[in-house]
Amino acid sequence: MEYVIQDILNEIEDFENYNVNSIVFFRKTQKKKRSRMIKKYNTILNYMNKMELALKLQEAQLLKDSKIFEELGKCIQTTVANLEELLLYGENVLKQQSCTEQSDDIKRWYERLTRRLEDLRISHTVLLQSKLQISIMLENSDKLVDKIIETITTTLPVWRNQVTILLGIEHMNNNLTIQNKLAEINKKYVNVQTTSRKKIGGQKEVESDELSLVNVSMKKSLSRLIDSEKQDEENRLKLSKILS
Question: Is the pTM here over 0.70, yes or no?
Fold first, then answer.
């Protein structure tokens, strides 16, 4: 998933570089720039559609995994409680060991009990570490699910809507519904005043500064999502090492 998100970030970066570095002096040049930027925008949309599907599948898998690990955590808690009872009982037995001379069989029995209690203490420590790691992983998974939902329902639609408006392609079929639903959200991110837009040859001039702000916001959101993806992977590896 990290690689898919990184591909989109690279495409947005390329999109942004073209927007910033393309200096326009003539109407034909402006029209050509806008046309090329729309092509780049459509390329990014294709990546985003794939990422959106992958994120939805990941969200479902994370929720499924969380249920499994929650049950595992409960089982570990029960096992820890049982182990603590056994350890307490075994230690009490050792304390009752007689100081008088004992047969070799009894001595060997106490030696085996001592080794067994040491093994149980190690198992108890490992279980406590596993329980803690599962709690950390579940907490991070919840945060990752929240970020995925935010990305799918807000970040991606808002970016599509804003760029669609700024490039002057409001009537693209894929964005008509989004614009109506996100009109209020859009005001929080970009204040696009229709009366202030310039027109060249009937085409809206690309608002480079506003487009840059939109892209920066999008890149920050996706970068945070990548960080959460990495953290989730690290937590799973740590738990795997503890359990192995």
Answer: no
